[in-house]
Amino acid sequence: MPGISHEAPLELLRRNPPLAMALLDGLGVAVPAGATATITSADETASVPAELRADAVILLTGRTGQLAVVVEVQLRYDLDKLYTWPAYIILARLAHRCPAVLLVICADAATARRCRSPIAVGHPGFQLKPLVIDSATMPDPAGPGKGQTGPELTVLAVLTGALDLNQDSVRRQVLASLAGLDEDRRKIYTVFILTAASPQAQDALEELMTTTEFHHPFVDRLLAEGEAKGLAEGEAKGLAEGEAKGEAKGQAKGEAQMILRILAARGLQPPAAIRERVLACTDTSQLETWGDRAATANTIEDVFGD
């Protein structure tokens, strides 16, 4: 099941769909004039064997037309996206009969850098360049026209690392952005913030939330029950255990198989010895290097040569 780190950005969009417009605006992407934003079905399944389901699809409707925004949250790079992301865009365009864009939200710069790589689908001139939100491209939550989505932008800035919760001024800024929210949103956003915080920042945030400036009855209950910090610690522990015991191994196996699929799709057949080498490899950095090469290489030697 997806964890808080993956679901938090999507929940921000579900609770306030105009957040998609603020993110696109920050990337310099034009949206329909006077657009309103609504969450629509993320099921992109067509009459093909595989099920295709994006993380979220938001439909922007304005005076000048519509724009479908396919949203994907990437905690790590996935070679399979070279094939599914172009399909998401085409199917969203087909389903809504309007232009479509791909918006990828990344929690770290390394994943964002790889996700920005253009995807050549094969047809001349047909190349998908994902729009990527990370710490470097997050819009300023306090920027002009961001009032409607300011709280969500602030929380997303924390999740992507654009705001450093280890700084007292940032902690105060983040908590102040939640002041005007209803209790339900304030509660879930607090959980998201504490999930992303370091243990030291968690303690400082909880201390700050008990002061007069940020005091609120729901905070008393939240801290007394240990709900927010407990969820944050549980998420961190679960991720750490999963990565230590099996997640890394599963990721390596998946990347190895994808490399072989990419090579086969491009008409490159590695000898048995190389296939065994790829499938036996557990070094994800090495697999990522081979995967990058496989996407553009003309020969097997271009991929596996030193």
What does this protein look like?
The chain has 306 residues and is of the alpha/beta class. It folds into 3 domains: 4-133, Trna Endonuclease, Chain: A, domain 1; 164-225, no CATH class; 252-304, no CATH class. Helices cover 53% and strands 12% of the residues. The protein has 13 helices and 7 strands. The chain has helices at 4-15, 19-26, 81-96, 109-115, 150-159, 168-177, 183-196, 199-209, 217-225, 227-265, 272-280, 284-294, 300-304, and strands spanning 36-40, 56-62, 65-74, 100-106, 119-120, 127-128, 131-133. The strands form 2 sheets. It has a 5-stranded mixed sheet, with helices on both faces. A two-stranded antiparallel ribbon has the order 5-6. Helix 3 links the parallel strand 3 and strand 4 (100-106). Helix 1 packs antiparallel against helix 7 (183-196), helix 10 (227-265) runs antiparallel to helix 11 and helix 10 (227-265) crosses helix 12. The longest helix is centred in the last third of the chain and has 39 residues, at 227-265. The protein starts with a helix and ends with a helix. Mean pLDDT is 83; it is low at 46-50 and 242-246.
